[in-house]
Specification:
- The protein is an alpha/beta fold.
- 53% of the residues lie in helices and 13% in strands.
């Protein structure tokens, strides 16, 4: 089975492209969604609380994303600690998920595919791009975040230029209909591999 990594900077529309692939019948694993679920598991909770304190979770048991983000996103060392707790568990979960798939290929969608080195473990990779101003506008609307907050999050990701050198395919996502067509073409191309 072919594993295709799908990535793109925050606000690029990688999840939209993942949905297009899913609509074509491709099994899609969204690493960030699975990471959120795993962060609610007892062993992960325990590790997070040990480092960042009880404030990391609400009394209801829900993750206090705002608090944790404020502690890790502007501190490379803290972000690395969090990634070292969550990423190995996501990887294990993904490997188990793959065993239950029977398609010609699957999509592994992850925001930091290149940054973590995970791209070396997939067979091919797709990079979704969009101009920075479009990405900022999307994120302001989606997350109701300030431009400052968005740029701080973008700073933790590699530039598109750096990622393009490593990607097998690049999809620019500025026009949805065009992106959907390009995704369909790419789907057919991967089926023939």
């Amino acid at each position: 089975m072919i594993i295709v990594g799908l990535t793109g900077g925050i606000g690029s529309g990688k999840t939209t492209v993942a949905k297009f692939f899913h609509a074509l019948g491709v099994p899609v694993y969204i690493a960030d969604e699975e990471a959120k679920k795993l962060m609610l598991s007892q062993p992960v909770k325990k590790e997070i609380i040990a480092i960042w304190g009880e404030e990391s979770y609400f009394p209801s048991g829900k993750l206090n994303r705002k608090y944790l983000a404020s502690r890790v996103f502007n501190d490379e060392e803290q972000l690395s600690k969090l990634n070292n707790i969550v990423h190995p568990r996501v990887e294990e979960h993904f490997q188990n998920w793959v065993k239950h798939q029977s398609a010609h290929f699957v999509i592994y969608e992850a925001a930091i595919l290149f940054e973590t080195g995970k791209y070396k473990e997939v067979d091919y990779s797709i990079l979704v791009t969009a101009p920075k101003e479009i990405r900022v506008a999307r994120l302001k609307k989606r997350d109701r975040a300030s431009e400052e907050q968005i740029k701080a999050r973008m700073k933790n990701q590699w530039s598109d230029e750096r990622k393009e050198k490593l990607a097998d395919w690049c999809l620019e996502n500025t026009d949805l209909a065009q992106t959907q067509q390009e995704t369909s073409k790419l789907y057919k191309q991967i089926l023939n591999l």
